[in-house]
Write a structure and sequence with these properties.
By secondary structure, this protein is mainly β. The radius of gyration is 28 Å and the shape is elongated.
């Protein structure tokens, strides 16, 4: 196997000058990346190839922008972007529990030193046994600017919707640790760790699958009292919306919803749904007189 990370980028863009006052721009971009991970390979550890995985990333993005000058004083800009991301790793072997065989006598390749605590790792790395990460995001914006004397009035609205699929269960197939080679050959004496679903729950309840929508509106005034000084003031309003939150924690001997509330003071199903915010903004820019360049 090669320790070679790769990335490929594909880009396409179309600009259309519809008229002297209107322009349309459409862009497509795809990025594919692969980074091989040789988990627990080195030192006194060695791992079989079915224990390795490829950390993969793939992004597909489409963007459309429309620019318009309706008059010498009024102009608008509209844009829409949709992006799909897949960060799901690819395992090098078929699904299998994680297996550690410890207590092995090993020789280090670098200097031939002998160790009595070597470990061989095989199967599917416990973190990658059930691990899917995918998102789909849509962004839409519309803004306008109107020049009125030495003032520029700005207003706009933006919309973002993100669909998240985070399907992760640690030790979904289990993990076995054998203290010696003899115990591995005999199939006895291993310690086992495996995620067990709570009574009445399914794997879907453990997944972080949800949708987040945010709507924002803003207004601002940019004032240039002099050719060097500009002052700005504005207000922005943002409102998040989550139609469905996580399920509550079931009651079990070692955990419960009431224990979570006692520890953290909130329900485990709490989200930021409906927590609207107002953000005032002020600022200034001043151009200094100088012939020096940096």
């Amino acid at each position: 196997a090669q320790n070679l990370a790769t990335q490929k980028t594909y880009l396409g863009k179309l600009d259309w000058n519809i008229s002297g006052d209107h322009r349309l721009s459409v862009t497509y971009r795809q990025v594919q990346g692969v980074n091989p991970v040789f988990q627990f390979f080195g030192g006194t550890n060695t791992s079989f190839s079915n224990f390795w995985y490829d950390a993969r990333r793939k992004t597909d993005s489409y963007t459309a922008q429309f620019f318009s000058n309706w008059s010498p004083d009024f102009r608008t800009e509209a844009s829409f972007t949709t992006t799909k991301y897949d960060g799901t790793a690819k395992n090098h072997g078929p699904p299998f529990p994680q297996v550690f065989i410890q207590g092995l006598t090993v020789a280090r390749n670098a200097d031939g030193a002998i160790f009595q605590n070597g470990t061989v790792d095989l199967g599917t790395y416990n973190v990658q046994q059930q691990n899917v990460l995918q998102t789909k995001t849509r962004n839409g914006t519309f803004s306008g600017e109107y020049s009125l004397g030495n003032h520029t009035l700005v207003a706009g609205i933006d919309y973002q919707r993100t669909e998240i699929a985070d399907e992760f269960i640690n030790n979904a197939y289990g993990s076995y640790t054998f203290p010696t080679l003899a115990s591995w050959l005999a199939g006895t004496g291993a310690s086992k760790t495996q995620t067990v679903l709570a009574p009445g729950k399914t794997a879907q309840d453990a997944f972080g699958d949800f949708t987040l929508t945010t709507l924002g509106v803003y207004v601002a005034d940019i004032w240039k009292p002099t050719s060097r000084l500009s002052l700005s003031a504005g207000l922005r309003f943002d409102a998040p919306y989550i139609p469905q939150g996580p399920t509550s924690i079931p009651t079990a001997p070692t955990y419960s919803e009431s224990a979570f509330r006692s520890a953290f003071g909130i329900d485990s199903t709490t989200t930021n749904d409906g927590n609207a915010t107002f953000s005032p903004r002020v600022g200034f820019n001043y151009k200094l007189t100088s012939d020096r360049q940096t």
